[in-house]
Specification:
Chain lengths: 325, 325
C-alpha cells in the first residue's frame, strides 16, 4: 500500500519547519530531534482521518498533524532524560549530545511549538481540538509516570500494565486519528469510533514492540534482542509468564530477575526466553494483539466513510501489526 | 493600597483548582508547587488589566489569570531542576522532595494545565491570546537558556544581561497585563502600551531583586544576603562594576571571582560590596530602576482608561519598586 501521497507533505513540512533561532542551545536540539526520522505514524493517522471525509485533507489537517508529531517527539526527548537513554534511533540522545538542562528546556519549547501548530484550526473546532489535545497530553504524561513507578514496584498486574501502555502510547494514536477525522468533518460518533480504532491499534502496536524485543530479528529490529529481559522490564511477556509459571519456572525467573551483570546477560536472555517458550508466551501475546486488531477493525466498520478510503487505514494498521522493526 | 478585592478570587480559585488525581507522583508535586504561595503578581496584573475596561473582570479574566500563574510556577519548577536549587520559598524544591524525573514530568503537565486554563476565553479572542501566550512562553525559555549560558561565558555585556532578564522575567509580566486588557476590551494600541508598562516594571523588578541580594535586609529578604556575589552571578551590579572598575578594583574583583570556598564567603561578600560602594553601584542601579519605572508610567499615561482604575496599576508597580523582599 502506497501512503507516500500522505507521507510526503508531512516530511516536506517538517523539513521546512522553523522552530526558532536564538539561543542555539535551545533550538538546535529541536531541529536535531525532529530530523531523526521515524515512521511519522501519528501525523499519517491525522491526515488519513481527514481524508476519510474531505479532499481538502492537506489544507485542513497538515499543521495539526505536525502538532501531534512535534508533541510525540517532545515526549521522546523528555522520556530519554528520565530513562537515561543514551541512543534514540541510533543517534545520541539530546541530554547526552548536549546536557540534561538543554534537553529539559528545548523539550519545553517543543511542547509550546506543538500547541502553536494546533492553532491552525478553524474557529468552530479550535477549542474542542485544544481540549482533547491537552487531555491526551496529560494522559501520556500519566502513562510515563506509571511506567517509571512500575520499575520499582514489586507487583504489577497485567491490567495495570495494559492501562499504562494505553496512556503512554495508545491514546495519542487514538487522538491523532480523531483529530484528523473531526477536521475533515466527521460526526462526533464517527470520530469516537476512529479514536477507539487508534487506541486499539496503539495497544497492539506496543504489544508488538514487546514481542519484537524478544522474538525480533536483531538486524531488522535495530535494537539488541532481549533488551527488556536484560533490564527486567515488566512487559506483557514477563507479567504473563510470572502469572502462568509453575513453581520451578517461578524460581528460575526469580533467579534471573535482578541479576544484571553484563557477563550473564546472554545467558539471562536465553533462560528467560526458554521459559517464555515453555509457557507459549509468544502465541498468547499474538492472540491478544489480534484481539485488539479485530476490535479496531470492528470500530472502523462502523465508520460512515467511503470503503476505499477506510481501506488505507486498515492497510496502515496491518503494516504496523506485521512490522519487523 | 488594597488589592485584596482582586487577590482573593485568585487565592480562592487556586486553592479550589483540580489538576488531576492519579498517579499521585504526577499530581502531588503540582498541588505542592501551587500551594507554596508567592505574591501572585502576574494574575493580579491580568485582573487589573481587565478591570481597566470592564466591571466583568472576574468572569472575563480569572481563569486566564490563573493560566499565567500556573505557567509561571511551571517555569520555577523546571528552573529549580536546572539550577539545582534546594529550596523555593523556604521549602524543599520538587526535584529534591521527590526526584528530578518527577519534577520534569509534573512540570510538563503544569504547562498543559496552564494552556487549559487559557481555553476559557471567548472565541473571538482565543487564537490571538493563545498565540501571544505561546510566543511569551518560548521567550521565557529563551531567557532561561541565556541565563544558563551566561554562567559559563567569560564576557557578558550589560545589554545582553538586560535582554536576558527581559526575556526571562519581564515579558511574562507584560503579557499578563496585555492579556487581561484584551479580555476586558482594550484596543490593540492600549494593550500594547500596557504590555510595555508590564515589561518595564518587570525589568525594574528584576533589577530590584539584584539590588536586594546585596543591599537587602537578610531577615526581610528571606534569602542570604550576598548569595549572588558568593556564586559569581553576573548580575547588573557585577557587570556594571566590572565595566567601571579601575585597574586595582578589577584585580580585586578578579581575585574574588571564582574563589568559592565557604570559609571565604563572608569576606568575599564584604570585599565585593566594598567595591560596589566605591563605584556607586547602588545609586546607579536605583537610577536605572527609576528610568524603567518612569518609562512604564509614560506608557500608562497613554492608556485610554479611567484614571482611578489606572491608579491601581501604578500603585502595584510602586509596591513592587519599594518592596524589601
Amino acid at each position: 500500500m502506497d501512503l507516500s501521497r500522505f507521507l510526503s507533505p508531512i516530511t516536506e513540512a517538517l523539513a521546512a519547519r522553523h522552530y526558532g533561532d536564538q539561543p542555539l542551545e535551545l533550538y538546535e536540539p529541536i531541529r536535531y530531534s525532529m530530523s531523526m526520522g521515524g515512521k511519522r505514524i501519528r501525523p499519517l493517522l491525522t491526515l488519513l482521518g481527514a481524508y476519510l471525509y474531505s479532499d481538502h485533507w492537506q489544507q485542513l489537517a497538515l499543521n495539526p498533524a505536525l502538532a501531534v508529531e512535534v508533541f510525540h517527539n517532545f515526549t521522546l526527548l523528555h522520556d530519554d532524560i528520565m530513562d537515561q537513554a543514551p541512543l534514540r534511533r541510533g543517534q545520541p540522545t539530546v541530554h547526552v549530545k548536549w546536557n540534561p538542562n538543554v534537553a529539559i528546556l528545548s523539550g519545553d519549547v517543543m511542547l509550546v511549538r506543538a500547541y502553536e501548530l494546533l492553532f491552525d484550526i478553524e474557529p468552530a473546532l479550535l477549542r474542542e481540538a485544544l481540549q482533547r489535545f491537552s487531555q491526551t497530553a496529560a494522559e501520556v504524561c500519566e502513562g510515563q509516570q506509571l511506567d517509571m513507578n512500575f520499575e520499582t514496584r514489586p507487583q504489577v498486574s497485567i491490567a495495570e500494565y495494559l492501562d499504562m501502555i494505553r496512556l503512554k502510547t495508545a491514546v495519542l494514536l487514538g487522538f491523532a486519528l480523531e483529530l484528523g477525522a473531526r477536521l475533515g468533518g466527521a460526526s462526533a460518533e464517527d470520530a469516537d469510533h476512529l479514536r477507539r480504532f487508534g487506541v486499539d491499534i496503539g495497544l497492539a502496536f506496543q504489544l508488538r514492540d514487546d514481542l519484537l524485543d524478544v522474538y525480533g530479528d536483531a538486524a531488522t529490529f535495530g535494537k539488541r534482542v532481549g533488551g527488556d529481559i536484560v533490564s527486567d522490564k515488566k512487559t506483557y511477556l514477563l507479567l504473563t509468564a510470572l502469572e502462568r509459571a509453575n513453581e520451578a519456572q517461578r524460581v528460575t525467573l526469580g533467579h534471573w530477575l535482578g541479576l544484571n551483570s553484563s557477563e550473564t546477560a546472554e545467558a539471562k536472555v536465553r533462560a528467560v526466553t526458554a521459559i517464555y517458550d515453555q509457557l507459549q508466551i509468544r502465541p498468547r501475546t499474538e492472540a491478544l494483539i489480534n484481539d485488539y486488531f479485530q476490535d479496531a477493525l470492528a470500530h472502523l466498520d462502523l465508520v460512515q466513510a467511503p470503503a476505499e478510503r477506510k481501506a488505507l487505514l486498515r492497510g496502515l494498521a496491518l503494516q504496523l501489526m506485521e512490522r519487523e522493526s
